[in-house]
Each structure stands twice: as structure tokens, then as C-alpha cells.
Amino acid sequence: MKKMKKSPVNILLYAFLGLWTAIQLFPLYWMLTFSLKDNNEIFGANVIGIPHVWRWENYTSVLTRGKVGTYFLNSVLVTGATIVLTSIVALMATYAMTRMIWKGRRLANNIVMLGLTVPIHTAILPIFIILRSLKMTNSYQALIVPYSAFALAMAIMICSSLMEGIPRELEEAAFIDGCSIYGIFWRIILPLMRPAIATISIFTYLQSWNELMFATIFISDSNYRTLTVGIQTLSGSYTTDWGPIGAALVVATFPTLIIYAFMSNKIQESLVIGAVKG
Amino acid sequence: MEKARSNVVAICLFMLPAAALFTVIIIVPIIMSSYYSLLDWDGITKGVFVGLENFVQLFKSKTAGFPKTLFNVSVLALLSVVIQLPLALFLAIVLGRGIKGEVFFLSVFFIPVLLSTTVIGQLWSKIYNPDYGILNVTLRALGLDHLTKVWLGDQKTALIAVFIPILWQYVGYHMLIMYAGIKSISPELREAARIDGATEGQLARYVTIPLLKPVLRTSIIFSVTGSLKAFDLIYILTNGGPAHASEVPSTLMVSMIFNRNRYGFGSAIAVMIIFLCFLVAIVLRKLMKTEEVV
């Protein structure tokens, strides 16, 4: 590799990268600072600086007065359940589709590919009507089941590529030792699929933690509302008071940022795999 | 073992949950949407079968504004191909060379991709706020008062104001895909070109970009079909307004169905979105394949 020199080109390059960093991070920085300010500062006295007085009460106000705590727990619950459901269902289906012998395997594969291209939005009315007739709007499963279904195609793609790499001899050996097909799946395949589960979890987390459209339309009872919708309604009721809105935005964002801080490589890798497969 | 592998009971058990989820949430809804799109239906009374009337209305009705939404997403698709992707490619090439701080820049540029669109929407709506938003405040501070605008409420600026955050958010995503593509190009190839005296520009032009073609194709298909599906940020920032200025098919669909109870008409839009996504993906794949042969 050629050593980088302090040529004018390189200085320009770094200036550009620095500028782009600022453009990408500025909204985040602004969110963090205004979540700790009062309107007086946000609206004029100190628009983009560090807060003069650090108003943590914005956070206490939003976490206690509003229902942000509930929304947060709802998001955790919905996202967690979606991840678990998607992973289990995808692993089972992938095993049948890559390792077992049956007619219709190819058809199943094609249908999965179809699921990859169908935009989630276009199913909203039929799903809404199904949920309404089952009296299931305003429940956790109203979100968990559709989220899992739409995450499934990608999850199966991710699982397939990893499962292809597991040597068939492992299964054969277990079979000779008297292991049933279920035992093989449970004791041989599952433990080896951990990296795929991590990738699926990351994908599914981002998708369901951030989803807005289904969450807006299927849930009207604030007890089941997730964070994304909660923040939307909150900003409606706090229109004049920006500090607490900022605090709510930070609360919605920090889990993602913390996870990213610890696993940035794995997350980047996962999303690239998804793109290349998709 | 072969016998165990073709155990019908086991196959059914393994496939059942996935098949059920797919059928109920994806396949049945597509069929239902297609059927609803042929009805004149308000969701309450019984629907009346009207054949393809809804689709005719999509293109003929001036008040519904569907052609306008197609124009708007075309603008978005075009902007992402000519602004977002080249920017992403440039960043990927620069970082892919292995400069100091590579990992830092890569991680930072990727952050917006991870953030919830609700959060991003809220932030940008505050940036655009006519009274206290950063944008107008900055313009006033610079003495450029005449340039301040009600960005999201002005028919002239709403569309572009909504598109900027959408483009901004996903630069990092395309950058990362391209960066991974660049890293998978064998280093010897680039080294050889360097030894032959290629400049960084030539290296990008003649080695990196041609080898990156499959990745670039994926990126283009993603950004175009992604534009067709755009919803969240527009819904939060303007909900398609003012006066349809920033309307896209999915926001129009939601407001037709859930605000105006035009279930049949809304479903026709849904069917059009599915159709266009498939069509665009197929056409782009074909187009870019022939290009490669030449």
C-alpha cells in the first residue's frame, strides 16, 4: 500500500470527509443538546450550543408524565417476540428446504423470493381487515405476526447460505448413532446456526423497532402503542415544548446506538449480507 | 439417512409455521388486495364490482392525483441515482483505499441508516420549522432573511425538503454495500495497476468501478424500488401535502383507505405499487445485463 502523503488532494479529501461526518452527525448532536434545554435556549438564546443549564427534568417529565415507559416496553416486547418467532420459523423452514428431500422445494423457494420483493405497505388493508374480523387490532400479536412474516423471507435467505456450509457428514454421523431427524435439527444444526441467528436478530430488530405504518394503523389503544407511534403522538401533544420531545427521541434512539457501539462490525456485516442476497 | 430426509411428517412440521405465516400475511393479502381493487367499496357497506374502473380512474381522475405521485417518486428515484449513489460510491472508494480513520468514518456514516425514521422525521421537521428551525435561524443570522421559507408548507419546496432527509439517511447504506464490494476485489489487481503507474483516479475508473458493477446494479435496483415504496419520512413530515405537492403512491394509498374510506381505490394503488416494483426490478435487471455484454 502506498503511504498517504500530505498532498493538497488528501487535505481536501479529509476536509470533505470531515464535512460529511458533520452533516451525518449534526441532527443527532442537535437532538442530544436540545433534549436538555428549555424553549428559551432552543428558540433563540442558544440554538446549537451545549446547554447552559442541563435540564434532566425533560427526561423525568417525559418518562413519568407521558407514557414513554410503556411505549418503550411495548417496543421491546414486540421486537423481542418478532426476533424469536422469525428465527425459529426461518430455521425450521430452511432446514426442510435445504436438507430434506421433497417435491415442491423449488416452488417454496420461489415463494420466499416473492416475499422478498413484495412491499410491506401493500398488504396493510387486507391484514387490517383480517385483524379486525378476528378482533385482534390493539394487541401485541397484531404487530408481531405481520412483522415476522415480512422478516421471514430475508431470514430464510440468510439461513440458507449458512446452512449450505454445514457438512452433511455431521448429520450422517449423528443419524448412524441413532439420532432422529428432530434430534439432528435440534442438537447438530441449531448450535451451528448461531451466527445466522445473530444476523437475523439484527435485521429484524431494525425492521420492527423502527416500523411505523403497521404500528400506526393496527394500534389505537395507547397501552399497546410502540415507541415510534408514541413519539408521533407525543410530539402532537407537546407541540410547544421541544425539550421533552427531544428527550423522547433520545430514549427511542439510545438502544440502537448502544447496540451499534458494541457490535458495529457484526451489524455492518449483517446488512451487507442482506443486500447482496436481496 | 435418505429415508429420514424424506420423512413427510417431519417436512410438514418444519414447513408448517413458515407456510402459515406466508399464506396468511403475504399471499392471501395480495389476492385480497387484487380483488378489492376491482370494487367500489367504502369498507362498511357491501362493495360493488366495477371491474377495472378504479385503475382507469387512477390515471384519469385529476382530483385523486395519482399521476402526480408517479412523477414525484420518479424524481426521488432520479435524485437517488444521480446524487445519492455517486456520493456513496465516492465515499466507498475513498474509504476502500484504506485511509487513516477508515473504520471511524465508515461507522459514523452508517449511523443514520440505523435510526428510526420517526426520530429522523421529528428531527428534520424541527430543522425545517419556519419560526425556530435551524435552517431559517441560520439564514436569518446570515442576513439572508429573504431566503427563509415555510419549507414543508410551501408547494414549491415541500417535495425537495422531504426528499433531502430520505437521500441523507441512506447514503451510508449504499456506501457500505459498495465498500464491502471494493474490499472483496483482490488487492493484487489494484496493486498491479498501481505498479503500472495508474493514478488513484484511473484506478477507480478502470479497475474498481468495472469490477463493482454487480454491486452497483444491486444498489440502483434498491434505490429505485426503495423510492417507489417511500413512506415513513413523507408521512411524518408532510403526509403528502400541501395540496399533494409531496404525495407519493403509498401516502396516497393510506389516506385514500384510512381517511377517506375509499377501500377499492386505495387497493388499486396498492396493486399498482406491487406491479411497478416488480416491473422496475425486471426492467432494470434486463437493461443492465445488456449493458454489461457491450
Overview of the molecule:
The complex is a heterodimer of chains A (278) and B (294). Chain A folds into 2 domains: 8-57, no CATH class; 67-237, Orthogonal Bundle (MetI-like fold). Helix content of chain A is 76%, strand content 0%. Chain A is built from 13 helices and no strands. Chain A has helices at residues 8-34, 39-45, 57-64, 68-99, 105-117, 124-133, 141-164, 168-176, 181-192, 194-210, 213-218, 227-237, 242-277. In chain A, helix 1 crosses helix 13, helix 4 packs antiparallel against helix 12 and helix 8 (168-176) crosses helix 9. The model of chain B has no long low-confidence stretch (mean pLDDT 89). Chain B has one domain (65-293): MetI-like (MetI-like fold, Orthogonal Bundle), CATH 1.10.3720.10. The longest helix of chain B has 31 residues, at 66-96. Chain B has helices at residues 2-5, 8-36, 53-60, 66-96, 102-114, 117-128, 134-141, 158-184, 187-195, 200-211, 213-229, 232-237, 249-259, 263-293, and strands at residues 39-40, 48-49. In chain B, a hairpin with a 7-residue loop joins strand 1 (39-40) and strand 2 (48-49). Chain B is mainly α. Classes of the chains: A mainly alpha (278), B mainly alpha (294). Chains A and B meet through helix 1, helix 2, helix 4, helix 5 and helix 6 of A and helix 1, helix 2, helix 5, helix 6 and helix 8 of B.
Question: What labels would you give this structure?
Answer:
heterodimer; A: 278 residues; mainly alpha; MetI-like fold; 0% strand; B: 294 residues; two-stranded antiparallel ribbon
